[in-house]
Specification:
The structure is a single chain. The radius of gyration is 20 Å and the shape is globular. Helices cover 40% and strands 18% of the residues. The strands form two sheets. A five-stranded mixed β-sheet has the order 3-2-1-4-5, with helices on both faces. It folds into two domains: 134 residues, 2-Layer Sandwich (Nucleotidyltransferase, domain 5), CATH 3.30.420.40; 166 residues, 2-Layer Sandwich (Nucleotidyltransferase, domain 5), CATH 3.30.420.40. The structure holds 5'-O-[(R)-(carboxyoxy)(hydroxy)phosphoryl]adenosine and zinc ion. Zinc ion binds next to helix 3.
Length: 336
């Protein structure tokens, strides 16, 4: 196992991505997003799989070219088996299998949510978490608190019962007439607003689980009520509304995360997923260092969906000769 070159493919949702890794270092990480969904205010699965079909070849070529290696040097192909949108997964999965067959090198299946956590082990000179630690994966598709015992030994100890936290951002944004995805827009508006301006209730959910569907509804009722009194309410208070929404979402996230730290006694926390790009989430996590937590925040390029995280997961499986058979099938849902 001197030098291992892994080509990794991610296509679980609406980003087509290919990365090449040399051991635990990223040589290239090419991501093609899909603008087509913006006009619909959410990902349209049928359109996503079609776009993956047209993106996959150019993305793989670009990743190999940027890494400056020939495909004959590759040691293995890693791909996202799931969870995700079936039509999207199929494109990357079928491509990965064909490539593995054509180059006669091993195929490695990767769990998308494990990969979001293992992104912290991509070597870019930073300190890496030590096992066990807690992973908080927050994106448009998932919200989970995970106890990470080893690279491929993870336990979900809390998760959302309905909407993901990214949806809470995006659906609130839709109510306010903001573009899609609204998360980053709310983030930047919130920075100029007062988070105490408006109060939203914290939804009830058992133990370490989350619930966000009631939150979105409370935002809707609040905005409808205020707009009846003042038609320009949103326009005149947008920054304060965004700050208050973001503050409440962060409260919801951290109430359960605090509880998880207390219950497990594990004070080492790593975040991942698109919502971990949120400046308020990052600030709140960093402030926990005063309470003795060790916190890990990945670089932006490894927080949202990307193939580099699939590559690093594949690398740790490669070291253990943990390969997949060619008749493996992609799956919309897979337990951790
Ligand atoms: O991980 P990701 O790129 O894709 C998946 O959903 O798997 O996450 C996308 C989500 C969207 O809901 C988007 O609004 C949210 O991440 N997001 C943010 C920020 N940047 C992205 N939410 C809040 N603040 C941000 N800065
Ligand atoms: Zn993801």
């Amino acid at each position: 196992h001197d030098n291992c070159f892994i080509l990794a493919i991610e296509s679980s949702c609406d980003d087509t991505s290919c990365a090449v890794l040399k051991n635990n270092q990223v040589l290239s990480n090419v991501i093609a997003g899909q603008k087509i969904h913006e006009q619909y205010g959410g990902v349209v699965p049928e359109l996503a799989s079609r776009a993956h079909q047209s993106n996959i070849i150019p993305v793989v070529h670009a990743a190999l070219a940027q890494a400056n290696i020939d495909k004959k040097q590759l040691s293995a192909i890693a791909f996202t088996r799931g969870p995700g949108l079936m039509g999207s997964l199929l494109v990357g999965g079928s491509f990965a299998k064909s490539l593995s067959l054509a180059l006669d090198i091993p195929l490695i299946e990767v769990h998308h949510m494990q990969a979001h956590i293992l992104a912290h082990f991509i070597d870019h000179g930073q300190e890496m978490p030590e096992f066990p630690f807690l992973g908080l994966t927050i994106s448009g598709g998932h919200t989970q608190i995970v106890k990470v015992n080893d690279y491929h030994d993870m336990e979900v100890i809390g998760s959302t019962m309905d909407d993901a936290v990214g949806e809470a951002f995006d659906k609130s944004g839709k109510i306010l007439g903001l573009g899609y995805p609204a998360g980053p827009i709310i983030d930047s508006l919130a920075r100029k607003g007062n988070h105490d301006a408006f109060k939203f209730p914290i939804p009830k959910a058992p133990d370490l689980d989350y619930s966000f569907s009631g939150f979105k509804t409370s935002v809707l009722y609040f905005v409808q009520k205020q707009t009846q009194k003042d038609p320009d309410f949103i326009q005149n208070n947008l920054e304060d509304i965004c700050a208050s929404i973001q503050y409440t979402i962060i409260e919801i996230l951290f109430q359960k995360l605090n509880k998880a730290v207390k219950q497990t006694g594990i004070k080492s926390v790593a975040i991942g997923g698109g919502v971990s790009a949120n400046s308020g989430v990052r600030e709140r996590l960093l402030s926990k260092q005063e309470k003795g937590w060790k916190v890990f925040i990945p670089p932006f390029e490894y927080t949202t969906d990307n193939a580099a995280m699939i590559g690093i997961s594949g690398y740790y499986k490669y070291l253990q000769d943990d390969f997949s058979s060619l008749d493996i099938i992609t799956q919309a849902r897979i337990p951790m």
